[in-house]
Amino acid sequence: MENKVQWAVVTGASSGIGYCYAQALAKRGINVFVTARRKDRLDQLKEHLQSKYGVEIEVFVCDLLEENAPQKIFDAASAGGRSIDILINNAGLGHFGNFLENKYDDHRVAMSINMERLSSLIWLFAKSMLNSKNSCYIQNIASISSFISTPKLAVYAATKAYVHSLSRALATEWRDTNIKISCLCPGLTTTEFMERADWKLGSLAAKGAMSSECVVEMGCQALFSGKMVKITGFTNWMYVLLSRFVPYKIVIALFQRMLGTKASV
Ligand SMILES: NC(=O)c1ccc[n+]([C@@H]2O[C@H](COP(=O)([O-])OP(=O)(O)OC[C@H]3O[C@@H](n4cnc5c(N)ncnc54)[C@H](OP(=O)(O)O)[C@@H]3O)[C@@H](O)[C@H]2O)c1
Question: What's the 257 CA to ligand 1 centre distance in angstroms?
Fold first, then answer.
């Protein structure tokens, strides 16, 4: 099934998990349409992947907060009748700190990118995928925080719970179609996320963070096998399991102790 795929779209491909997704897909011989705001990063990625894997990489610079950004991405990705068989809905962000301590505008941006823009991209690409004769794949990047309300990441965790819930429901709605949709739930992963989130990880948490490469390999396996929800790594899986059976107050107390502090204080 994998070798029928021609083109994938990866949002947030300029760093971290998205960057690794573009690499992992190119390595599998898939052409990739990469999008984010930082053109220099995307151009470097393009040069690297084209020369290393001989695939086509197309760069599209776009701020997801711009009006009609999902439609612009869809139109550019589908230009010339190109059909997109894979969508990796990866762009996302959060802000560490108490709800009232952070600016409301930061909450608005996280809600907009993590939920509204993500949903809009799913809607646009899935409508077109349904008309394709190929098997098509969508993966939404959520987080293990989608399983548990997380103080100091309250809005972020709530947006990821939305992503998780939406992905499960759509996987069921589309069970008998050519679209497989999955939800990847990474735990702490070493990327630029923490810096953007103004978040200084506790030392134990920093030691346990996974690499983006490792997360993405698990993500790719889930993507092509049609696994509905994939939690990355044994420790993260244990944490989610614990949250089901141990009272919330205890789980969150353990988790909060590990998480760390705001970087700017
Ligand atoms: N790192 C973790 O511990 C972790 C854990 C669980 C889940 N996740 C999720 O994994 C996904 C990827 O995050 P990451 O860890 O790889 O962080 P990252 O390195 O900060 O990457 C975030 C990506 O999103 C893009 N982005 C941010 N704002 C954007 C905007 N307004 N318009 C377009 N693109 C935008 C960034 O590109 P530009 O700045 O160039 O636009 C960047 O490519 C996110 O959904 C995150 O919630 C991360």
Answer: 24
Distance from residue 122's CA to the centre of ligand 1 (Å): 17
Q: Which residues line ligand 1 (CB under 6 A)?
A: 12-18, 36-38, 63-65, 90-93, 113, 141, 143, 186, 188-189, 191-193, 196
pLDDT for 60-110, tens place per residue?
Answer: 999 999 999 999 999 999 999 999 999 999 999 999 999 999 999 999 999
Give the C-alpha distances (Å, rounded to integers) separating 182 from 49, 51, 122, 229, 231.
Answer: 25, 30, 12, 6, 11
Please name the helix (run of DSSP H) or strand (run of DSSP E) that holds residue 164, with its range, or none. Answer: helix 154-173
3-state SS track over 175-186: CCCCEEEEEEEC
Query: Which pLDDT tens digit goes with each residue over 193-206?
Result: 999 999 998 888 88
Residues designated as active site: 156
pLDDT given for residue 4 in this prediction? 61
Q: Name the residue type at position 214.
A: C
Contact 10, 32 (CB under 8 A): yes
**CA distance linking residue 187 with residue 221, whole number of Å:** 17
Q: Is the dihedral of CA 103, 105, 108, 113 positive or negative?
A: negative
β-partners of residue 185 are 231
| pLDDT less than 50: residues of the chain | 1-3
Residue having the nearest C-alpha atom to atom 20 of ligand 1: 193
Which residue type sits at 203? S
pTM of the predicted structure, to 2 decimals? 0.96
What are the domain boundaries of the chain? 2-262
The whole-angstrom separation of Cα 119 and Cα 92 is 12
The CATH number of domain 2-262, selected from 3.40.50.2300, 3.30.930.10, 3.40.630.10, 3.40.50.720? 3.40.50.720
